[in-house]
UniProtKB/TrEMBL annotation:
Predominant location category: membrane
Entry keyword annotation includes ATP-binding: no
InterPro entries: Preflagellin_Peptidase, Preflagellin_peptidase_C, Prepilin_IV_endopep_pep
Region (Disordered): 229-248, 257-286
Name used for this protein in its record: Preflagellin peptidase FlaK
Pfam families: Arc_PepC_II, Peptidase_A24
The Preflagellin peptidase C-terminal domain, residue ranges: 309-346
Location of the Prepilin type IV endopeptidase peptidase domain: 17-113
GO molecular function, one term: aspartic-type endopeptidase activity
Entry's transmembrane regions: 39-58, 70-89, 101-121, 141-160, 329-351
Source species: Natrinema salaciae
Localization in the cell: Cell membrane
């Protein structure tokens, strides 16, 4: 079958539908860190249909096509890649969308697809004579290993970018500095605490949850941090915290009612940067971090009261802060898919 100058079997041509879909999910993951689960359902159904179609074609071809070229790689794909994706999700190594993407790939690309673009056979490494002994390797595993290699290269690229700008720091491999004004629309994790830079600071989605819960903007908090450190300024009726997404569609009451419900001397009660009033009395629960985490339904991405307090202290004072962009894994997965379709396995292709 030939479409737009590309020759391949019917199943392999239909598998190319995955490329624009994964491109879209990678873009969505960069922009919002949210990918709807419904996007994977059509691809899963398509993969199942193509799996049956491929099985029938292999059975009809006879010889070793059924066992060696279809059954073995398909069994490995479903029996190895699927458990790997599930286990990494279970232990927190992958997000839900990342795991679902790998599950879809395991069904959609169990065997090595073959395409002819004029006189060029793709994937280049997989169709060479040197690659023939690896035919039983599932193609989904090739995509996964490519994605891992791309993921490893990203910190190096980030370090080069920081070094070129003269930003030499221990966290230069995982983050970069941004103005505080960009924080409300940025994804990732704050890499700073009041005592210095850290590789594990406040999750920016958790920060947005907190600000929405209080009905505050980061600019308002920075304009009067002494006031808002005092839990007496917490709203009597907090707003829904949402899930912290930048694009969350939720209306919040300005200041969460805090300005109306706060005692007149609330600002005086938080005069010092430390959780202590001007008279020396200890202020319980500075910033209302404990109250926030106790009130919300669920977890704020593993955020602890201390982590939230430290992040708020940094953001209340500093003009520029280091954050980790936390590049979503769907980006390396998409790049790994494209490389796999055009070239094949980066690791084995290089070694062979």
């Amino acid at each position: 079958m030939t479409v737009a100058g590309v020759s391949a079997t019917g199943p392999d041509l239909l598998r190319l539908v995955a490329v624009p879909v994964f491109a879209w999910t990678a873009y969505r993951d960069i922009e919002t860190r949210r990918v709807s689960s419904t996007v994977w359902i059509p691809l899963s159904l398509l993969g199942t249909v193509l799996l049956v179609w491929d099985g029938w074609l292999s059975w009809s071809a006879g010889g070793t096509a059924w066992s060696y070229e279809f059954l073995i790689p398909t069994t490995i794909s479903l029996g190895l890649v699927v458990p790997i994706a599930y286990l990494f999700w279970w232990f927190g190594g992958f997000g839900g969308a990342d795991a679902k993407a790998l599950l879809v790939l395991a069904v959609l690309f169990p065997t090595v697809p073959e395409y002819a673009l004029g006189s060029v056979a793709l994937p280049l490494a997989e169709t060479s004579s040197l690659a023939e002994p690896t035919t039983i390797r599932p193609f989904s595993f090739t995509i996964l290993t490519n994605a891992v290699l791309v993921g490893i290269a990203l910190p190096l690229a980030l370090a080069v970018r920081n070094a070129a700008a003269g930003r030499i720091a221990p966290v230069m491999f995982v983050g970069w500095p941004v103005s505080w004004e960009r924080i409300p629309t940025s994804h990732g994790r704050l890499l700073e605490t009041p005592s210095g830079r850290s590789r594990g600071g406040l999750d920016l989605d958790a920060l947005r949850m907190y600000l929405r819960w209080r009905g505050l903007s980061l600019a308002e908090l920075r304009a009067d941090p002494k006031r808002y450190r005092d839990p007496a300024t917490l709203p009597a009726e907090p707003n829904p915290p949402t899930d912290g997404a930048v694009t969350a569609d939720v209306a919040v009451r300005g200041d969460g009612g805090a300005l109306e419900s706060a005692p007149a001397d609330a600002a005086d009660a938080a005069d010092a940067a430390e959780p202590e009033s001007a008279t020396g009395a200890t202020v319980d629960d500075p910033w209302g971090a404990d109250a926030f985490l106790d009130d919300i339904d669920g977890s704020a991405y593993g955020t602890t009261p201390d982590t939230l307090r430290e992040g708020l202290e940094v953001l209340a004072e500093k003009e520029t802060v280091w954050i980790s962009p936390g590049t979503p894994f769907l980006v390396p997965v998409f790049v790994g898919l494209v490389i796999a379709l055009l070239y094949g396995d980066l690791l084995l292709g290089t070694l062979l």
